[in-house]
Structures are given as C-alpha cells and as structure tokens.
Amino acid sequence: MLGSDVVLRALEAEGVDIVFGIPGGAILPTYDAMARGTTVRHVLARHEQGAGHMAEGYARASGRVGVAIATSGPGATNLVTAIADAWMDSTPTVFITGQVRSDLIGTDAFQEIDATGITMPIVKHSWLVQDKHELVPALKAAFHVARTGRQGPVLVDIAKDVQEAELEFEWPDEVDLPGWRPPRRVNARQIREAALAIAQAERPIIYAGGGVLNGDACRELLELVDSDRLPAVVTLMGKGCLPDSHPLNYGPPGMHGSKYGNWALNKSDLVIAIGTRFDDRVTGKVSAFAPGAKVIHFDIDAAEVGKIRAAEIPVVGPLKFALTELVAELRTAREEHTPKHEPWLRQLEEWRASFPYRYTKVDGILKPQTAIEALRDLSTTVDGDVIWTTGVGQHQMWAMQYLVCDKPRSFITSGGLGTMGYGVPAAVGAKAARPDATVVCIDGDGCFQMTCQELATAALEGLPIVTVVINNGWLGMVRQWQELFYAERYAQTHLTKQVPDYAQLAEAYGCAGFTVENEDDLESTLAAAFDAGRSAVVDVRCDPEEKCFPMVPAGAAAVDVIEAPDEEGALR
Amino acid sequence: MSTHTISVRMENKPGALARVSQLFSRRGYNIMSLAVGPTERADISRLTLRVDCRDDSLEQIEKQMHKLVNVLRVTELVADESLERELALITVTVSPDRRAELVSLSQLAGARVADIGRDAVTFEVVGRPDQVEAFEELVRPYGVRELVRTGRIGLRRPSANGRMNTPTVSV
C-alpha cells in the first residue's frame, strides 16, 4: 500500500476514531487515502489552530489522544499555538503535518517550513519522516510518547514522497525507544514518609492539579480525601478532579481563587501537592508561598519536583498508583498517630463562611457573574453530562469561581498558555469525543472573535455546542489591569459590544443566535439556547466595568489576596 | 554559581544534538563548551557539556534532559572521579629570528608543531583543560593570531570508587 494508507491504518490501529484537520498540498496524499476508505472520521476545521484546539478538547473530554492534521508551511505554523497550548497543559495529542518532498527539503520550496525545528521547544518529541521505512516506527512511537509519562504533544512531519511511496504495513506491538522510560512505580519509602507526615500534620492541605485528571487518579484522590478527612484546594487545570461540591474541596487557589482557598494553602503546615506544578498564578510571590509548610510533591514528571519549590518528600511516579499506596500507608500510620487536624478543618470552614465569592448586583445592570450563575443553575436541569469549555480572561476566572463541576473532564480550559480563542474549537472537539454530553463554551467577546469561524465546523459536522459570549465590549482582563495598575489608561482594549452583532454572526454560520441585555431575560434565553437543537450563540451584554475578584496582584504574596469591593466600593 | 561538566549519552539521530542545545538556551542556561562525537557504538553519541550554573539549576537541567526521548543517560563528571581532555590548535605570530625559541618552549610544554609558515607557527596541544590553558598563556606574549579549542571531552575513571557511570538522576 502507499505511505498515505499506512498513516490511516496506523490511526485505526491506535484506536483513533476522529481526527481534526484541513488538507493542503503536502498532505494531499493522506487525504486521498481517506477518500479511499477508513474508519477514521475527519472533522474539517476552518483554521488549523481550530483543528489543533479541537484535538485538545477531544483529548481533555475523553482522556484519549487527540489528533490534528495539517499541511506544510502555513498549515504547520497555524498549528503552533495549539501545540504550545497542549505542551503547557500536558494534553496528549499527535499532530501530523505534511512536508514538501524530501528532495526539496532545505531549498525553501513552496510552503516549506521547518516544522520540527519551529516546534522543538513545545513538543515532547517530533519526527521528520523522509525515509518510508521510518513511517511506521515514527507513528507508533508518536502515540506512545504522547500518552505515556507526563502527557503532551508530539509532531510527525511526513514528506510528501513518503506518503506516495509503496510500503508494507505491519503494526508493531512494541516501540523501540531506549531513551523514553517514564516512571511506572513509586518509591515505597517515600510513600511511607509521606503518609507519616500527613498523619502528623496539624494543618494539612491537598493541592491537586491537572495531573490528577491526566493520571486518571480522581477516584484515588477522592478516597484519600475521604479516608482521612483531608481538605483540598484544586487548581484551574484540576477543576473536576475532586467534586466541587465535596465539603472538603476549598476550590481554586491562586490569582483569582478565593481568599479561603489561598489561606488554606498558604497557612498550612503541610502542602500535599498532587499532579501540579506550583505555577506562578497559584503561588504568587514564591518566597512568600506557604512559608510554614513542609511539601510533599507527587508527580509523574521528576523535573517538576523541586523546580519552583523544594519538596521535603518527593514522590515521582504514576499518581493512580502512588495515591492507592498512600491511602494504604496512611491507614497504617493512623494506627499510631491520631488525627490532629480537626481544629484546622473548623478554621477552614470559618474562613469559607467569612470570605465567600461575592459581587454587588446593581439594578438595571447585567453582571457577568449573574450570567455564569444562571448557567450553573441551568446545567443542573440538563439530562446527562455537561462539559464546559472557556476562553481566557475574566469570563474564564468567573467560570472557575462559580461553576460547580462534580465530574472529571467536565471543565476544559487553557491554563498554562492562556490561549484566547481556545473555547469554541475545544468545545467542538469535546462534543466530538462525547456526543451525548451538553457542551457549553463560556467565552469572552475578545476570545470568541479569535476562533469563531469554527462555528461553521460545529454547524456542518453535526457537533452542536452552546457558546455563551460574556460580552462586555472590552478585552476585559487587560482592561482590569489597566484600571488597577495603569492609572485607567485604556490603551487599545475597547472592542465595543455591538460590532459584530454576535446573534447575526451566529445565524450566518447556521447557528441559532440570541442576545440578552437584562437579567430578566437571562434564564429563558439561555434555556432556549440549550434547547435550540443546533449550535447556538448567546450574546450576553453585560457590565463592562465589572472586575474579577478576589485578586492576588502580580508579585504579591498569595496570602495577601484582595477581595471584591464591599457594597460601598471599598477594597479590603 | 559553579561550573559543571555533564556527559550525555544519546541516540545518534538527526536533531538529537539540536534538542539538547535548544533545551539549554530555552531554559536560560549558558553552555560554555560542547563537544559531541561517536562512541563505542555507532548508534550512540556522547556529548560533553560545560555549564556554569547553581547546583539546583544543574539538577533541573539534568531532569529536563532526561525527558528528551533521544537522551539515554545524563551523568555529571565530578573532577576527582573523571578524566577530561581537550585539544587546541593555536597559531602564533612569530618572526623567523624568534621561531626556534618558541618551538623549543612549546616542546618543553608538551605541545607539537602542526604547521610552520613564514611568520607564524601552528601548535597542537592535547591535555587536561588546565594544561591547554597554561600553554595558551605561555604563547600569548608572542601574539596569538588564531586559536580554536575542541571543548573538553570526558569519561568517568574506571578506577573511581563506586559503580561505573552512575546516573545522577534515576527515572
């Protein structure tokens, strides 16, 4: 068969059911192989960045490897943002790009770009396939590397003549990667030390991140929390790994986390970090982060342990395995050490009662938080699962604060890279992965305009999503910084609420369009959008001046989190 | 800050060297010297790097390198337990009347004459990095026209205590 057929047979052998992409010159043979027949469904995106985020949304919603395909040159460069996003958030993805013929490589041929070179710092590994005999091993290794160890993106760049070459297809059982040996077990002594430290702690706090989802360790985390009544904070990327409505879940810490979440983490005497990387959005000023705490750090990636904050007890290995062992060891440790953290739990409850998320409603002004609360309430009436995606900015932080996600893989967002425009295509990908779920993208007006062309994909591919544009007419988070830190000099952040008319734009893309301007219409309009029977866009025109609180100013200690102004407008 | 020699065994594959060197620049570490070449196995290369960094940064570099798919093993070469060698070619400007003096000086210092021109001599010197530096200092007063050093290569001494080539990070 041809190399292009081999690509499809490889995808089938890896159990790939859907890929996202756009054809072009250098990848044409592979698209021709699709036309010859495959069980793999191809979703035609409108921009390669969209295809990339769809693959990410698919991976995040399903836990399987997401695949995006593009041509050489601009096809590959358009994928770069999605590859970088998958890199920062450890999303298991395989990106396949066409490359110019191998005899043209290096000649600045039409649509030639050094795709493996450009993406080198943002992939786990990449392969430039110029020899047909390397095609099968590269594809086999690509899926293996993407999904094992700390998950993430890989790139396979395939020269056009390799796609056109005749070769045999035999899918190997094993990969030959002598240098790729992710940890498969954990050190038993370190688990015992961790259990002992937890058993003796007075103010323990679990700090759980996206690694818990990636490591398929949510059930084990819940068991840890329940078995020892350990309180937890859960990062933006981890949202859903422990039910938000669990009484011991103190929500997100960090720049826009609650005061109680930040205090829980920063005033603890033992930080039990699980699948998280002490990101600057969480720690604030690192030297002032959890100053009285000893740190246990569980992670599959040894390089994350001790990268930002030294860990007194490092535990490197698969989280599912590590947490199972930890629960057992903790039970043993408890035979000699009775729990001492009940006063701490009472303290946390006091803080939670004293410092709730809050905003001030004003008659006649629709507050963005109100819209998100309405969505949260509406979602409880929906049959089946709800999956949320977001863009990046204020709306994302409000979604983090106000949505209740009780199931893993129900909150899909761009954390590390902070990619505006992630929401709509990620929602399309999530819908492709889980067609029975209701998929809702909470977007900002700035974000929406970066990738809204994928509404066409949603409409035409039978992947209905609901997009709620929190339209404040501004690049809201930037505006917030300008207001607070740049003396209200609003340089180039005003977008206007009216242009484009989002409802009309939605209709133009074959989606249902709605506009809401006041609170009274909010609930019924959102409900109508959920029931539209096709993709829908709701333009929620809301208060442009609302700011996202609580907030840890950049460079400040996380413990010095600023709450929302009170009714008189005073910050405290 | 202190200077460290890191030895990296890696698969001899296209792009492998680029991945390692890229990782250093992207994570903000400066490479002082880098030497790469074949090993006892055709499919494996060895890279010897000199870096100037803090000890905790060194640990971070090693861990990041371990994550590279083509990297097989990362070892720090500790001074007392390893051999390090370097080769330098040094062209020294010298007038014919002082040539004999320079050549005999270089022989005393263990360098060899690689080429002689009308107004210059090229020496080759092989040895420990400090010996190479010493020779460089020795001839500098004559006027060094051009100089190139390979950067150091190194191996752990078989006579050193403990296991051979113990990886400093186990994964």
Give me a quick take on this structure.
Chain A is α/β, with parallel strands linked by helices and 572 residues long. Chain A is built from 22 helices and 17 strands. The relative contact order of chain A is 0.11.
Looking at this protein, list some descriptive labels.
heterodimer; A: 572 residues; alpha/beta; Rossmann fold; 6-stranded parallel sheet; globular; B: 171 residues; Alpha-Beta Plaits; 4-stranded antiparallel sheet; 4 helices; elongated
Q: What would CATH call the homologous superfamily of the largest domain in chain A? A: Thiamin diphosphate (ThDP)-binding fold, Pyr/PP domains
Tally of DSSP helical segments of chain A: 22
Low-pLDDT runs of chain A: none
Strand order of the largest sheet of chain A: 2-1-3-4-6-5
Major sheet size, sense and barrel closure of chain B: 5 strands, antiparallel
Structural class of the helix and strand makeup of chain B?
alpha+beta
Contiguous runs where pLDDT drops below 50 for at least 5 residues of chain B: none
Do you know the CATH architecture of the largest domain in chain B?
2-Layer Sandwich
CATH uppermost class of the largest domain in chain B: Alpha Beta
Total beta-strand segments of chain A: 17
Instruction: Give the end-to-end Cα distance of chain A, rounded to a whole number of Å.
Output: 69 Å
Structural class of chain A: alpha/beta
Give the % helix of chain A. 25-40%
Question: What is the class of the largest domain in chain A in the CATH system?
Answer: Alpha Beta
Treating each run of at least 4 consecutive H or I residues as one helix, how many helices of chain B?
4
Arithmetic mean pLDDT of chain A: 97
Number of self-contained structural domains of chain A: 3
CATH topology of the largest domain in chain A: Rossmann fold
Count the strands of chain B? 9
Distance between the termini of chain B: 26 Å
* Global morphology of chain B: elongated
